Structure formats: C-alpha cells, structure tokens
Amino acid sequence: MEFFVPWCGPGDFYTAADQFPEASVTPVEGSGPALSFSMAGGDLRLASDTLARELLLWSAGEGKIAESTGLPFPGWSAIGICGDREETASAAESFTRYGLPFSPKDGVLVSETILWKSALRALDLASEGWPPGETADFLSGLLFSPFGFPREDFAAALPCGRKGWLDFLGERAKKTPSRNTPLRAFRRVLAFTDTLTAGGRPEELLSALGKLAPDREEMKGLITEAREFPSLDGMLRTVNVAVLEAGEKERALRDLVRDLGDSGRAVLRGGEAAAFLARWAETASTRTSPPVSPAMAVHQGTPPVLTSAAVWVFLGATAPHWPGQVRESPLLNDDRKGFLHDSLDLGRSHLPLVPEKRKQREALFRRLAACARELCLFVRPLADGSGRPLPPSPFVTEAEAGPAPWLIPAETSYERSLGDLLPQAVGETVCVRGVEIPAECSPRKGLFRRGHLTAPLPLPEKIFHLSGLDDFAACPFLYYCRRMGLEPAAEELFRRDLAGNGFHRLWELAWKEHLSSGGSLEELADRFFDAAYGDGYPGLLSDQRLFRHRADQREKNRRLGALQDAMERSGLGEARSEQRREFPLPELEIGGTVFRGRCDRMDILGDGSALLFDYKSGRSGKYTKSLQLAAYSIALREGPERRSASAAVFLGLGDGSAAGAKHDGAPLWLDAGKISLAELESQAAEVMKRAADSIASGDFPPEYDSDRCRYCSFSSLCRRRDFRAEEEDNGEGEE
C-alpha cells in the first residue's frame, strides 16, 4: 500500500506515518514556505472591513499588503478564504459593501434561510393568536407582502386573531385585486401552521414548508416589484433553493415510504412536527450559488483536500480558536491514558494526550496555512463581542520561527483599533467612495459628531405653532421631524391621539354647560363623556377590546372635574368675569416667521388679567418647566388687547392634578406652584428667537444631550446611536 501523508513541518507531530513504523518514508519536495502577513481589527466586523479594504487597495497597487509584502495583486480568482460560519458571514457582508467579487463554495443551511425563520415566526404568532403589530410586521416581510401591505389601513383597524385578520385582509383584497395580495400570503401561512397542528407524515410536513414560500406566479410578481432593490436578489434565490431542497427531500421520503410500510406512515403533530422540520433544517444545506468569475473562493470550515491558492486568507487566527481550549478528559485523564498505554497491548491504537491534542490542532493549522502558495493572510479581531481581548494564535509565531520556518513573516503587521474606524484624512489616505468617510470630513466630525448637518431643511411655510415650542427647545431636529410628519403612525389598540381629541372636546362641552346652567364639573364630565368621545374617538365607545380604557378615561375625567370644582369653590368662580375656550391667540412675527397658538381655556378675571389653562393627557408634573403657556402669555401681552396673564396652569388627566407658574400678584387662592412665570417667559422669548432663525436658515441641529433622546423616534435620522450607546432605560413616551 502507498500512503500520501501531509507534512506539517518540523515538530513532534503524530501522523499516519507513526502508526506504521515499519513503513519506508519518501519525502516529496514542496514549493517552499509562503509569506505571511497578519492584520487585525477592533472587533469581528472591523476585522472583516479591514480585510475588504486592504484587498481593494491592493488591487489598485496600494495599501498595507502591497507595502509590507511587495507582491503584485494576483487577481481575484487567485484568492482563497477559509473560516468558521460567523467569520465567513462577516467577511461576505464586508465584501458585498466594498463591491469585491466572491463566490461561496458551500451552501447555506436551511435553518439560516428566511424561509425557515419565517416558518418559526409563523408558529410563534399562531400560538399567540395572531396579535396586531407582530403579525403586521411579519406579513410585511419579503416572503409575503413587502411592497403591498396596507400599513395605514392596518393602523386604523388593528385586526387581531385569525378571523379578524382574514376579514381585514379580505376587505382590502376587494379594493386592490392582485395575485400578490396580503390575503393570499396570510392564507399560505395559515395552511402551514394548520398542517403542523393537525399533523402529517414527514413528506407532507416538508411539502407544507415548501408551500409557505410564494408560488411561481407570486415569485414573479415579487421579482418585478424588487427590480429597484438588487440586494434582494440573493435573498429571493436563497428562498428558491431552500424550497427545492425541501422538495427533493419530500420526494425521497415518498419513495422511501413504499419500503418502510406502516412505520413510514407515522403522523407527526404539533411539537413533534416542528422538531422534525427543525432537525432537517439544521442538517440540510442549499445548493451553492452559481460560480462567479473572477471571484475569491470562500470556504466555510475546512476546505476540500488539496485546495490551494496563490493568496490564502486565514480568518479567525486567535488563541481561543487555535489551539482553543485543550483539556484533559474528565473521565480519562492523561495519567490513566498513560497507564493504559503501558499496561495494555493496544497495538497501533493510541489515546491522544493533551500535548498531542494541541499538536494535532497545530498540524491542522499548518495544513490550512499551507493552502497558500505565495502569501497567507492571517485576519483576526482584537476583541470579542463583549470587549474582551483576543490574543493572536501562538501557532502563527511558531510557524514563522526556527531555522526552517513553515511561513516567512512579512516586514510588518497591521492592527486597526475601533478608534481608527474612520480613516484619517492625512496626506494621501484613500477612502472608498460610498462606503467610508474620513474622520475629519465635514459636516460630520468623527465620533464626537459635534458639527451638525449643514444641508438646509426647509419648511413649507414660515409659520411656527407655539404648541411645538417645547419640542424645539428640547431638540430642533425633533421639532423639524414632527413638523414634517415623519412620526411613525400609531399602531396600538388604544389611540392616545384620538383619546386626546375626545378629552379636549369633553371639557369644551362641560364648561359651556357649567357656565350657562351650572352644575358640578365632575358630574358634567360623566354626562358628556359619550358625546365628546363619540366625536373625537368613536372607536373607544364601540370596540369591546377597549372597555378597560373606556372606563379608565371616564373615571379620570371625573377626577379632573372634581379638581376643577375645588378650584371654582376656592375663588375662581367668583373672580371670573369671562371665559374663552379654544381661543386663537394674537399672531406674533419674529424675523419673518409667524407664531400662532390656540389656548384651550382662558379665564379673564375682574381686574382684567387672565389665567391660561392647558389640558394634558399625562401628568401635570411633567410640564412644570414647559414654555408653551409662557409663550401664550407673551402672545397675549403683545396682542391688540395688551392683556397680561397672571398665571399659567396645566391640568393633567393622568393624575388629576394641576401644575404651573405665576407672576407676583397672582390671586392668593390659586395654587399654581412656586415657579416664576416671568422666568419662563424670558426663556420662551429666547427659544422663539432661535426658532425664527432656524426657520429662516433651514438649520435644525440635533441636540444629542436632550432628555427626549430616550424615547425619540428619529434617532436613526440624527445618527445619535452611531456614536453613543442607547440607554437601557427607554423611559416613558409623551402623552
């Protein structure tokens, strides 16, 4: 017999040749050691980006690889890459962004495809009773209705449950007849979940999984609609090959059933059915993508025997991987193995000891590095996902050492920490257009990002509504986004905005009746509740799912009525000479911008001064520093009546309390707190001046230290999270 045994260089390596000591060994001349060059990035993502960047620069004759090795770029087809699943996935993502050609040499596990992930999500949603928001997000996914899901109609209806969704989607299908309707997609999902619940033979379960994906006509429609999104091509192809894999397995099982008899007709239901599909998805691989040429070959795991390339990229060359944790067996330690070796005649059998296991890992490491004919690139992250340092593999240094090294080290290595995430715009540093931005590039200034966007953000008209003054004071960019209607539509069963409409309408009706005919405001709140909320939020009265919210709103309005009754008895009722509700304030013009406002309620006292009231759905204590009513006071004072406000009060439905500010000389019977209204007016005037300047210039800079950042909907637009960790405590949103 003739054996071909890989040589691993000098060292005490236990190989097949050691198992046949009587055999003669004939060395075969190799091509000699290749160059080695090590590069590292702050984390896995940056390490992958660094590799992609340096390969791209090398193809242009520049970069660290060209400087350190002096080798010319060999062409994309002469580069091979190996690494584990996570490392190759990260590298593929970086190659895609940098536009580098690569060709995976291994298929994707079905468990990692969008088809299987959608199947798992469908089972979860079915067990939860098809809740509104989660089901809407699911049906908006790529496999179902990514371009035609009626999100606005959904936000208004908020269907729930199997029947609710079928009714809702059925009504929409009548309005927009098409083969790619959300109704067809939802029926596909129901067919899959129903099959697993009712049970079926293995081949029937695989058939149901395949039918979860769009059929041929639906897929054609998806491809047509996705023409403007070429990045979706790969995902759609992966779905198709996963369906093909399921179909092949289904046919194989149907053929096998004939030979298995009764045992082949076993029915799997519920958890057993899901477990069968999960096991198959975790072991079945899709077909490989059609080869691209010229392109780098990416091998997941160990490449095939005798694979080689002029340049070999070795991903993940860290000590935790190479050698990794090599330990004694808990049941059979090295001492016991040695005793067995000495006392038993094991022949050529050998139980490897810990040092030998390490040597085996080193031998495999060297064989993978030997895939390089000219240059081996070792790529590794400097830290793991938790920020713990990852030292380089000692095998690299050992392979480069000794009189007959396995690899010849390049003159230098290259490390790129997270602090070097943005390339420094120094000298002739190259930046990849569309992918990178230099640290000093205006308008963004690296990680500190203190310079805001200089591009103007014009508003359609130079009008500022004073109800948005607190938004502007907190963050001008927040104000701009809300003003332009960029706030995501509310997708909750209880609509706070509509409840606010009913709340304001209620107190308009209650005060009108109270001033004309008298009566307790607490009782009037209960009396006018249905009429007011029927106008502003009819769904609250008709939808039985909102019963708890309906009762809560009624009780809170009664409580707020009791508070106002107490204020009436304390002296307000006698001091009031006139009341105006939903009162349009006099307009103010500052720097060409018109400031407008509408006061919920203004009580004019006998001395001519005014008390300003604003009704809030939340707790009144949240508005003690609000500038809204202070700005109303300024507008009132500057108007034709020249009327001054002695106090400004917020009435909070959330806790049935009042809070505000007042001037010196305000009525003693009015408990409006100790905050000075004059100070708030001064602040409001300054903010109004800044708002006028912003509207004139179109400059609405984000305020990254605002307390609104915890629950802001626009953090992805201002890019705050790019350089500042998101708070774990998101706080509560405004009411």
TrEMBL record:
It holds the Pfam family PDDEXK_1. Residues 467-719 form the PD-(D/E)XK endonuclease-like domain. This is PD-(D/E)XK endonuclease-like domain-containing protein.
